[in-house]
Amino acid sequence: MATPIVQRTEVSLAGYPVDAAPVTMALISDVHVAGPDMPPSRFEGIVEQINALAPDYVMIAGDLVSEKRSATHIYTAAEATAPLKGLDGSIIKIAVPGNHDHWFDMEAIRAGLENAGFRVLENEAAQFGPLVVGGIDDDYTGRADLPATLAAMEPLSGGRIILSHSPDPFPDMPANFGLMLAGHTHCGQIRYPWGGAPATMSDHGERYACGRVDENGNSVIVGAGLGTSLLPVRLFSKPEIWVIEVGR
């Protein structure tokens, strides 16, 4: 089981306060806690890795759990979220749901996240220091409401970030709006050595399947996730933690 690789990038946000220092965010997604490849003990080690990166924020773009048929053990929502209690107390913690979270037990997962100090956003927004974060509910299961999220962000001031499980709402963001953070695609999970993947679970195919894309004055960063879905294996798609520095 590979140690997540750390990807880094910097993003300038137009609404970021001129007198505020830059901040760093660690983006993770698709943890998919389940045996054999992602028991809670492995997730605990990843939490320690995140702490060592010393981010100001941790953003979780959904899918903490897995109920895949190939799993050797299905953990409860409390067991899946318990490792997150190990995150440093000074970190600001924000999460949105993913499709597997809804299929599993979103209320129990929300309780576990909140017990670990996370604010869970579902088509709503809040101010966190110099950032305004809008959290979109899961698009894959038809729960996303981008207009409602944008409306909730409107009266708030700061650098604007949208956290979403799927990257598919990205083309609908207003021009020159800000940054989207997402997951869901696993960067294909099983990829061809020459590039591309049999499936990305995105309506846009490879367009937003992996990494950073800049379009229309906006940026989206799509992480490869940490765990697996369907089969407990990755091929030419390593697990990732993204560290993003944002500022003016």
TrEMBL record:
**Short name of one Pfam family for this protein?**
Metallophos
> In terms of domain of life, where is this protein from?
Bacteria
The reply on keyword Hydrolase is yes
Q: Name one GO molecular function term.
A: hydrolase activity
Q: Give the record's keywords alphabetically.
A: Hydrolase
Matches recorded under InterPro entries: Calcineurin-like_PHP (IPR004843), Metallo-depent_PP-like (IPR029052), Metallophosphoesterase_sf (IPR051158)
Q: Domain (Calcineurin-like phosphoesterase): give its ranges.
A: 26-186
Q: Spell out the PANTHER family in the cross-references.
A: TRANSMEMBRANE PROTEIN WITH METALLOPHOSPHOESTERASE DOMAIN (PTHR31302:SF0), TRANSMEMBRANE PROTEIN WITH METALLOPHOSPHOESTERASE DOMAIN-RELATED (PTHR31302)
Name of the protein this chain belongs to: Phosphohydrolase
Q: Which organism is it from?
A: Pontixanthobacter aquaemixtae
